[in-house]
Amino acid sequence: MEKIAVIGAGTMGNGIAHVFAQNGFQVNLIDISQVSLDKGLDTITKNLDRMLAKESIDEAKKEETLSNITTFTALEEGVSDVQLVIEAATENLDIKLKIFKDLDRICKAGAILATNTSSISITQIAAATQRPEKVIGMHFMNPVPIMKLVEIIRGYSTSDEVTRTIMELSKKLGKTPTEVNDYPGFVANRILMPMINESIETLYNGVAGVEEIDTVMKLGMAHPMGPLQLADFIGLDVCLSILNVMYDGFKNPKYAPCPLLVNMVMAGKLGVKSGEGFYDYSESKKAEKVSSQFK
User: Fold this and answer.
1) Which residues lie in coiled coils (predicted)?
2) Among 72, 163, 236, 287, which residue's beta carbon has the most beta carbons within 10 A?
3) DSSP 8-state class, residue 258
């Protein structure tokens, strides 16, 4: 496998493209927006510059990595000749089903179709294609160039051969692949999101403030980042989407999103990406606690 495509140039997509390109793969990075592609390439360049400053790569490796990436705004042009497609578009079922239906029509018969979804059923996505045995989940962690884990999720029909191929491929990227089965939230988010949701409930019920909750979990549980800060980093809209997928999938009230989370998303307070969530990320008050509305 030498040539792959990544759909979506956002945070996850450009990170996935970066890792493959740095490891010698030819990468077609695809997005409907040229602005998003330019921003994605800028992010990759900045991340490579950080690695260069830390002397973990040299200038030649940086230039080689960037030369391995070609951008496309047309899906058909970007995926027609690749051996693997990794979809990293918005965490929305309808969008993903449309993409996979199109991929099944456009991609060559032997191509593997993977999704970076963090919670949506691989089996349901695969059902939009005529090749469900070649559809698999590759859930990378953010930030992709740094985090070692890749959750490899088998759908109901995913073949053993495809699973082995993707496990070995992940190892070639310097990652640690972990095979899990196809249930809402898989493993990472099935455990993480209820913790984040309970942290928001704790704030909502007035048990403690933002900074206090995060301090307890960082110092008491040895978490590198508090759950509310982590939620800001992930994106509160993404957290809400994942919780809704699990609540719909399991019909268990323990996965129901906290009303405070719902209200914050409706108000556009999405965390780092919007400049404000549980903390303030504006230039003048970077990462300060947003406390007044929660007291």
Assistant:
1) none
2) 236
3) P
Q: DSSP for 15-77, please give it.
A: HHHHHHHHTT-EEEEE-S-HHHHHHHHHHHHHHHHHHHHTTSS-HHHHHHHHHTEEEES-HHH
> Which residue in this structure is represented by tokens 């307070």?
269
Q: Helix 34-53 crosses helix 59-67 at what angle (to 10 degrees)? A: 160
End-to-end CA distance of the chain: 55
Hey, how many other C-beta atoms are within 10 angstroms of the C-beta on 148?
11
In tens, the pLDDT along 35-75 reads 999 999 999 999 999 999 999 999 999 999 999 999 999 99
CA gap 4, 69 in Å, rounded: 10
Q: What is the distance of C-alpha 184 from the center of its chain?
A: 15
Query: Which residues are catalytically annotated?
Result: 118, 139, 151, 189
In tens, the pLDDT along 234-262 reads 999 999 999 999 999 999 999 999 999 99
Per-residue pLDDT at 289 exceeds 60: no
